[in-house]
Design brief:
972 residues; mainly beta; 22-stranded antiparallel barrel; 8 helices
Length: 972
């Protein structure tokens, strides 16, 4: 044997210059040495099929055509018709076991039915993953501590356009009934295009030729929420439904397959919201009176902590989604295989958000009486009493949103029969959003004040307010501007379009030595996201719209024909407030003037990314000492041409367009190696350099600035600048990650696994807020206000360097029958993740005394599920836990603070029965209860008191109620 040795003088500098590439080379050298050391040629160990007992009809017919290659075997998630909870677990574990990468997998319990009510809720049970709730539902996914913006999401391997201003996919846009499986890549490989910094979620639709025969499934479920009807007369109740059907068939001797699926969601949301605006010491030596020069607050004891304002709102929302999926698969012979994927969905949402709010700071001329306090640290806390002099604001808001998603992909693979294969894939993804939002103010005319008794909680919960005014009385409540906001209402029209065009071409061929084959490919994508926003101010008929003619106390009675019941705020003590049709009132009792200021013009922009990618991957297939070794090694070269155009303004005046951007190239090597160290026992190692571009709206070229008079806090009375903007020259996130995982599989659906990982952040993006930004190059858009200084607060995304993320993941599952025969049918699954992060500089770490962790990181994430499945019966109860995490920095009255989202625990349950024989065979009944314990959403705010002592107090407390679904499934 001949071994080639590099000269020491060359090898050492190369290792220091390229540590990741050197590590990959060292692993390959070790693998090659091990393969040469064998007494016999290495045995090829291709991954087994997803289910050895369920061969597809295509295989049974002498494998008429090659299937698209996937060394991970993840595509086999949908290759088997699975039935039931245990079968779903088995199929997912086989995909995890057979993968070359470190992945997690979720498989449908049956055609058209994932284990949970949504894809995101299923993903929330995966180790290392956590959800972010929107309207009480799991909607976005965080992997290993990074925010949803850095989770790559693909549909059948293709990157998807998004309806938001960022890259994070709203998983509610994809009906779970049309998804047959999900793979979560925690380590990338060179052929994975569209990968995220934290991981990649690949959604799979069914492949009709993978099924042995025709299949049909239908699903109908009624749905209700127990939060009741909060906005009477809005048309949004507490009942809805979900319906779906799937049809799959094969034609022409199983060479042509067709799958069609349709799913509809008509779902209500009833949400109770409460927000404590801010907290302060008003009177005394430690308070705002002494330290900020604020007015004295009559009736309030010295040096006690009090709430300075509140907002109590009820949200009623109706979500209507229709999704249509079509797959056409053709395999006419042993050489050619073609698949056409089409997906289209519409999403309509109507939201009614009504509430009462007031400010009770020293600057609002309020007074207290009968004040009660409780001892807390660092100061006593005001919890009960009476407030006079409140200028209560009743704000009613209506939002109508319409989203459209379309995705098409055409994949063609040809096997030349001599080892060479070529694969071509063309795709298009488009997402459109149209939104109209309008709100109006009401209250007591003439800026008349009201009063209230109050009892506010020490910890997070709803308050109890007893106002002295009937806010539901149309004889007392009128349209007006109670607290001099400067306008009577507001209307906004937003439009957004995101599109991705992509083409991919790759070739593969078997090779020798320690490799089974290689893949050489290229991908080109062109993404364009465009957003526009038009803002109008609403003015009451008879009132002026200029600084000289506008009267903030001007009132107008609400037309009785627009009244539509009341809004129920009784959960916060207020029996009811007035409710009316916002759009009818806006069109009849108001006139509009366009008010696109700098901050509004800055939301009109386009961001474009042209990204060519070249990649080379070798699949490893060898052995050492009789131990099978597999995996892959490769490299991606990514070129990014990033640009943005936006509107240029001079003050509020539109004067033209501006453009800017940047270009960069990144080389991303990757290595995945696994060894089957014992029967069904695997050791896996991954090492990769990954990148992810920042939020799309962070890359916009637009900025905005304005001046305003500060009414509260230490800068009260001053006129100050503030602004924000994007950064079109942002460089991407770059990380080098290493993963080590041990897995042991036993029984049919049992396993145990442990993993550790480390990500070194070479480059990251954070929002930096500075309080001394120089605004001398900006034009003051408000001639009635003269700023005290050219300096103010400005927020913009910036690049930072350094930092790391480290974590431990434990998971396992056990079948009860392995413990005792009488436990047959029972089972349990659980996982736990512990993640730490450090950042030298972030939006939060710039605040003295703040944590240096990554915003959005939950240090602990855990899931536990218990199930029973036998004799047609199935039962499953699952709980997921996510520890608190730090939010972004917020500016509070010329000071910086930050929010913390508190720990979240949610429990879900389902009970079902399937008729297994007789005339009802194929029919099943399912009862599901989501959020069984009505788990609230809670946040805290951390900021400084007037004496610079930092405190943490409750900010938000929202509840969504339980969602109960009862329905039937039918399959044949």
């Amino acid at each position: 044997m001949n071994h080639r040795h590099s000269m020491p003088g060359r090898a050492v500098p190369a290792i220091h210059a390229r540590p990741l590439a050197a590590a990959c080379a060292m692993a390959l050298w070790l693998a090659s040495g091990a393969s040469w050391a064998q007494d016999q040629p290495p045995q090829n160990t291709p991954p087994p099929p997803a289910d050895a007992n369920a061969k597809s009809a295509t295989e049974q017919k002498a494998k008429k055509a090659p299937k698209p290659t996937n060394s991970d075997g993840v595509s086999n998630l949908d290759a088997v018709v699975v039935t039931g909870i245990q079968a779903s677990i088995q199929n997912s574990l086989k995909a995890k076991q057979n993968s070359s990468n470190i992945i997690e997998a979720i498989s449908a319990e049956d055609i058209g039915k994932l284990p949970d009510s949504s894809i995101a809720e299923s993903l929330a049970r995966v180790p290392g993953l956590a959800t972010q709730r929107v309207d009480g539902r799991a909607n976005q996914i965080s992997i290993r501590g990074l925010s949803p913006d850095f989770v790559g999401t693909t549909l059948n391997g293709r990157e998807q356009a998004t309806i938001g201003e960022n890259r994070g996919v709203d998983f509610d846009q994809y009906p779970s009934e049309l998804i047959s499986g999900v793979a979560v890549y925690k380590t990338p490989d060179a052929s994975l295009v569209g990968q995220g910094l934290s991981g990649t979620v690949d959604l799979h639709t069914i492949r009709p030729l993978d099924l042995p025969k025709r299949a049909f499934a239908a699903n109908l479920r009624g749905e209700t929420t127990d939060n009741g009807n909060l906005n009477h007369g809005s048309g949004v109740g507490d009942a809805g439904h979900r319906a779906s059907f799937s049809y799959i068939d094969q034609y022409f001797d199983h060479t042509l397959g067709l799958a069609v699926g349709f799913a509809q969601l008509d779902s209500p949301v009833q949400e109770k919201q409460y927000q404590a605006w801010w907290w302060s010491l008003n009177n005394g030596s430690q308070g705002a009176e002494n330290n900020w020069g604020a007015p004295h607050t009559p009736g309030l004891p010295d040096n006690v902590l009090s709430q300075e304002g509140m907002q109590l709102r009820a949200k009623s929302e109706n979500q209507l989604r229709n999704g249509l999926m079509t797959v056409l698969e053709w395999a006419p012979d042993d050489h050619y295989h073609s698949t056409l994927d089409l997906y289209y969905s519409t999403f309509s949402q109507k939201t009614f958000l009504n509430g009462a709010q007031w400010s009770s700071s020293p600057y609002d001329n309020v007074s207290y009486s009968n004040v009660g306090t409780v001892p807390t640290l660092p100061y006593p806390l005001v919890t009960t009493g009476h407030i006079d002099g409140l200028k209560a604001i009743l704000q009613n808001e209506y939002t109508k949103e319409k989203d459209n998603l379309f995705s098409a992909g055409w994949n063609n693979q040809y096997d030349f029969g001599n080892g060479w294969m070529i694969n071509a894939d063309a795709s298009y993804s488009m997402a459109k959003r149209r939104l109209h939002d309008a709100y109006l103010f009401a209250g007591l005319p003439g800026q008349e004040t009201s009063s209230t008794d109050f009892a506010t909680p020490v910890h997070e919960h709803f308050p109890d307010f007893t106002p002295g005014t009937n806010f539901a009385d149309p004889g007392r409540i009128q349209f007006t501007d109670p607290n001099n906001y400067g306008y009577d209402g507001r209307s906004e029209y937003d439009k957004q379009k995101d599109s991705i065009r992509a083409f991919r071409l790759e070739v593969s061929h078997p090779v020798g030595w320690i490799f089974s084959d290689f893949t050489l490919g290229a991908n080109y994508s062109d993404r364009r996201k465009t957003k526009s926003a038009d803002v109008f101010f609403a003015w009451l008929n008879g009132n002026g719209s200029t600084s000289g003619s506008y009267l903030p106390g001007y009132g107008s009675p609400i037309d009785p024909s627009f009244l539509s019941g009341v809004t129920d705020l009784s959960y916060g003590g207020i029996p009811a407030i007035i409710n009316y049709d916002v759009m009818d009132a806006l069109g009849s009792q108001y006139y509009l003037t366009q008010r696109n200021g700098q901050s509004d013009w800055s939301r009109n922009y386009t961001v474009r990314e042209k990204v060519p990618v070249a990649y080379l991957k070798f699949n490893i297939d060898t052995s050492a000492g009789g131990i099978p070794i597999g995996g892959n090694v490769g490299v991606q070269v990514v070129r990014t041409d990033q640009s943005s155009t936006a509107l240029q303004t001079n003050g509020d005046a539109l004067v033209g367009r501006i453009a800017d951007g940047t270009k960069y190239t990144k080389v991303l090597p990757s290595l995945n190696v696994f060894a089957e160290i014992a029967d069904k026992q695997y050791l896996r190692f991954g090492l990769a350099k990954t990148m992810a571009r920042g939020r799309i709206d962070d890359e916009k070229v637009a900025t905005s600035a304005s001046v305003a008079e500060i009414t509260d806090g230490p800068a009260a009375g001053q006129v100050l600048w503030s602004g924000s903007g994007g950064n079109p020259k942002l460089k991407p996130y770059i990380a080098v990650g290493a993963d080590l995982s041990w897995e042991k599989y036993f029984g049919k659906a049992s396993y145990v696994a442990a993993a550790v990982f480390n990500k070194n952040l070479l480059n990251y993006i954070y929002n930096e807020t500075v309080l001394d930004y120089n605004f001398s190059n900006y034009v003051n858009d408000n001639p009635t206000l003269t700023p005290n200084s050219v300096y103010g607060s400005f927020t913009t995304p910036q690049n930072g360097t350094g930092g790391k993320i480290q974590g431990l993941e434990l998971q396992g599952g056990i079948e009860g029958g392995l413990i005792a025969s009488w436990l047959d049918g029972f089972g349990a699954q659980g996982n736990f993740s512990l993640t730490n992060s450090t950042l030298p500089t972030s939006a939060v770490s710039t605040i003295p005394g703040s944590p240096s962790t990554l915003p959005g990181l939950s240090r602990k994430v855990a899931n536990l599920a218990l199930y029973y499945e036998k004799y047609g019966w199935s039962f499953r109860i699952a709980e997921r836990y996510r520890s608190s995490f730090t939010g972004e920095a917020v500016a509070l009255f010329d000071q910086l603070g930050y929010t913390t989202v508190l720990a979240d625990k949610q429990t879900d349950m389902q009970i079902g029965y399937e008729f297994q024989e007789g005339r009802y065979s194929g029919l099943s009944v399912l009862l599901q209860v989501n959020n069984l314990t009505d788990s609230p959403f809670k946040t805290m705010q951390t900021s400084a008191l007037p004496n610079n002592v930092k405190i943490q107090r409750p900010l938000e407390f929202d509840t969504y109620g339980r969602t109960i679904m009862l329905g039937v499934n039918f399959k044949m």
